Amino acid sequence: MKPHLHLRQLSLLLAFLFAGTANILFAQDFAGKVVKSITFDPPQQPLDPRDLKNMLLVQVNRPLQSLQLAGTVDRLFYSGLFTDIQVDAEPSGTGVSLRFITTPRLFVGHVSAEGQISDPPSRNVLLSDAQLSLGTRYDAENVETARKNMEQIMRDNGLYGSHVGVATIEDPDTHQMTIRFQVVSGKRAHYETPIIKGDTKELSNQAIIRATGWRIPLIGYWRQVTQSLTEKGAAGIQKKYAKKDRLTASVLFPSIDYDAKNNRVKPTLEIDAGPKITIKAVEAKVSKSKLQNFVPVYQEGSVDNDLLAEGAVNIRDYFQSKGYPDVDVTFKREPTKNDREVINYYIATGQRRKLVNIAITGSNYFTLETIRERMFLQTSSLVLRYGRYSETFRKKDEQSIENLYAANGFRDAKVTSIVETDYKGNPKNLGVTFHISPGPQWRVTDLHIVGNNRLNLSRVESRLNSAVGQPYADPLVASDRNLILEYYFDHGFPSAAFSVSTTPGPEPATVNLTYHITEGPREFVRDVIISGLHRTRPSLVERRIHLANGEPLSMSKINDEARRLTNLGVFASVNTALQDPDGTNRYKTVLFDFDEAARYTFNVGFGADFGSIGGTTTNLQAASGQHGVYPRVAFDVNRLNFLGIGQTISIQTRYSSLEQRESLNYIVPRFLGSQGRTVTFSLLYDTTQDVTTFSSRRLEASVQTSQRFTRASTLLLRFAYRRVSTGNVVIPSLLIPELLQPVRIGILTASYIQDHRDNPADAHRGFLNTVDAGAAGGFFGSQRNFVRVLARNATYTPLGRNLVFARQTQIGAIIPFDLTPNLTDADAVPLPERFFGGGGVSMRGFGYNQAGPRDIGPPVATGFPLGGNGLFFNTVELRFPLLGPNISGVLFEDMGNIYDTFSDISFRYHQNNNQDFSYAVQAPGFGIRYKTPLGPVRVDFAYALNAPHYDGYGGTIQDLLNCSLHHNCQVTPQRLSRFQFFFSIGQAF
């Protein structure tokens, strides 16, 4: 293709050439005269003084030469920062004074779309389609094109009355042009009955209209127009035809007409239904849904032999994976007859066999485990009854093993495989043997790096894969190439290039390796321009951008700065660019453009607890808890970027029949300049009724600082001063002034979290450690004195490809000191501060908060849980796939309890009597997990092998109070339910 110039480009080129000629002719009058001074108009030039100095070929106190002057103009123009350059020469004594008159070029700065924009299209879609990239050269015609494109997008989305205006603001200091599009969306149009043309076959017009989804069923109201709904309409018609086996149906829109008077849109549909196509599996049973997945005709909407052949391969692989290694699949297209084409897949399955053995021979470099973990083939197991085998997988495994050897220097490695159809004489068994012929391992005998004249590569050389004595392989060389070029790019060489050459080494299977580097020009940071800030204080951004004038230009560092700014949480996006990146100037201006996030965010959540929780407050037989559904509602409001300094105020509320909570938080991220440190000030009011023993009330003020050391390690320090009290107490033994009085608690706690899980929502490997320790005492203004420690360790171990063994251990202790008179160790800790346990996330052998000591009187035993000062829970789980990729199963065994004191912790199995709760309850069970984007939905069924017995009281609270006064309460032996059921989101741990 021959190069050509547009008319505008040609006119600019001619103008520049004539200008250069005029300069030369003009300068001949002063040729040979000494240049006395060189000035610029305007004095403040877009070029860095260091670049400007290098571009000047004419110099003061030297004779003026016409070619030098023309060369200077050329250099300045090709820097990309000027649209016009003129030179004015005037006599100055016996010499000449030169004045360069320049017109700086403008560049695209912050681009915004403002106004009440009806979504769709969203603000981001409009700006993306404008295609005005930050730092590129500003052109008024491009802006007008972008404006028209925006209006077209809005019309495509039914906003035919929309209007887009544009305003531009030039910054003469930075030469950036701010572009603001003013959007008036107008009223969105509605669809109306479309015009239907073409060969629609058996579908009526009404059926086609229903398939579009443009009209609301039953009420017949036409929906509002959007581009996606228009496209879905065409897809809906094709889907309707596909259900009638017309797989090649096409739907086009020759026109979409707008009625401005009624604000209605009338699409014209051009439909070609095509023939009916029937795809059948012959000689073997394959469901229609599977055929639709295997044969790409259904997805592509067309029929050709390539797609049908691909379908045959997919069907063959499917049957081979089901234990039919000898399956043969062919297809035949019957001639179209009576508006129908039949395609038959002939499937000869052969004998069903089980893949029982995979052997690997010739492997003398890698372990068998290293090779097997890269293979698709698998022998039969509990999960894969017939194993996993197909010809495609076998070939992929051969290639995978070859690639593994080739990446480690075995350039001539070959892998072959043999299939034994009667493995060890059993015709139903299948064995596959892979034989590896690795050949010699090529090694590097000498490595030279040439061309690195301006950059010391000593830091890189120690990390190169192709060092002397190491294997020689193309992937290793490619890794070295990336490492070296990244190092150059990070040190201001954006156009650095790399090539490699080899020569035979002194011995067989050895090479001498030479890396050739072309460094190219080095670029530096000139300055930084910030745009797009309206509500945010510039100082918030400026002190977080660490780019110094004159330092080598590194786009990776610039992107890291942008990523850290994005992590502030106050910007919807941070865009970075260089001003005129293709210009020849070496000192570049770095641009940071910000799109501020909305100041307010609102979160509304609905959920529920399912399981045995508490009970009623009227019937004391509910001491064992009641199964039920307990809805929860959450509403949060966040004020981001408060005062423009990146801090946040949030109000969080939680309401349910079990809990009412309101909290006010003030969050200061990156406290004292530390990237991972956050300080939070909180006010909290909480009322909780998780058990029927009492309701817990807490009014708290706290300050917390968290320091994140690494991605996995975080330390939290927290001081809380709270007033805790109890209400709705239903146990006579707790109706004691010392236990019912509100208590002030001042407590300092420290928490350390070490999280090495691969996926916190659904971990498959790694571990989690947490330790929480705190002290409350008179030295903090607390009315009760105790030390509280709670530790947890969880590990996740993969077993093969599909199984995960997970275990968790929790242990906790509350140890009081300086006891208040007349209070025991157990009673010295206020009820709301004690450990409570049981439920879907701690111990599934109990209902929620039903574990541990229970009320045994006097004056009467009610059997209600009281909490305790000691905690021990241990859980083990075996997680495995169950049905398809999204449903998995869990076998678990939970063990443990809540104890009166830490010294009472015991692992004994049997309960001694109805007043003994210092033993470990054992609860095996089974669970089902369904994978969702929010985490697995969890259902657990548990059976407590040794559920506790206790003495309880039946009747109402009033009956209890009356009988306790007369000391004639009748208690009956009771037992917690052995069966427990839980439903929630997320794994148990």
CATH topology of the largest domain: Porin
Q: What is the overall number of helices?
A: 18
State the fourth-level CATH superfamily of the largest domain: membrane protein fhac: a member of the omp85/tpsb transporter family
Helix-strand makeup class: alpha+beta
Report on this model:
The protein has 989 residues and is α+β, with helices and mostly antiparallel strands. It folds into eight domains: 7-104, Ubiquitin-like (UB roll), CATH 3.10.20.310; 107-184, Roll (Ubiquitin-like (UB roll)), CATH 3.10.20; 190-272, membrane protein fhac (Ubiquitin-like (UB roll)), CATH 3.10.20.310; 279-348, membrane protein fhac (Ubiquitin-like (UB roll)), CATH 3.10.20; 354-437, Ubiquitin-like (UB roll) (Roll); 443-518, Roll (Ubiquitin-like (UB roll)), CATH 3.10.20.310; 524-596, Ubiquitin-like (UB roll) (Roll); 605-985, Porin (Beta Barrel), CATH 2.40.160. It contains 18 helices and 40 strands. It has a 16-stranded antiparallel β-sheet, with no helix packed on it. Strands 7, 8, 9 and 10 form a four-stranded mixed β-sheet that branches. α1 (7-27) runs antiparallel to α3 (66-78), α4 (123-130) crosses α5 (140-156) and α6 crosses α7. The longest helix is centred in the first third of the chain and has 21 residues, at 7-27.
